[in-house]
Amino acid sequence: MAVNLSQNLANHNRFDPGFHFFLVPLILILWVASMVFLVRHPGWEPVWGLLLVTALAVTAVKGRANAIKVQDRVIRLEQRLRLAALLPESLRSQIVRLSEGQLIALRFASDEEVPALAHRALLENLSRGDIKKSIRDWQPDFWRV
Q1: pLDDT means per 10 residues in the chain (145 residues)?
Q2: Spans of all domains in the chain
Q3: Of 66, 73, 78, 127, which one's alpha carbon is 20 to 30 angstroms from that of 55?
Q4: Contacts for 90-98: CB closer than 8 Å, 24+ residues apart
Q5: Using alpha carbons only, what angle is made at residue 96 by residues 95 and 98, rounded to the nearest 5 degrees?
Q6: End-to-end CA distance of the chain
Q7: DSSP assignment, residue 41?
Q8: How many Å apart are CA 72 and CA 100, to the nearest integer?
């Protein structure tokens, strides 16, 4: 698989083809088909089929959500360590004031612009999107879930 080396705000969202283009459409089709079958042929078997497909959908969504949450926790820790090394002494004690979203957005900024951007995020309470829009030297992250 070819890797896009020029990542930026416009193209940094990641799609997992197996999840987004196979599993999710398949589960949706199965769920609709199970509903149609239940309406046309009422009974316990179609109810169990619908419950099974619903359980599969919940499992898929929860599995992806849990993986993303773990990823966000790792990014938060990584960025706190990075900021502790890059920020001036006067700002290091303020790292804990940065929200999870702010820390996650800062991971795309270069080491050179992180101190100023983190300071701005603290002063202006910038959102994740505002931080990403302010990044001039975008650092790609191809390891995301």
Answers
A1: 65 82 96 97 96 97 94 95 95 95 95 96 95 93 79
A2: 17-134
A3: 73
A4: 91/115, 91/118, 91/119, 91/122, 94/122, 97/122, 98/122
A5: 70
A6: 16
A7: S
A8: 8
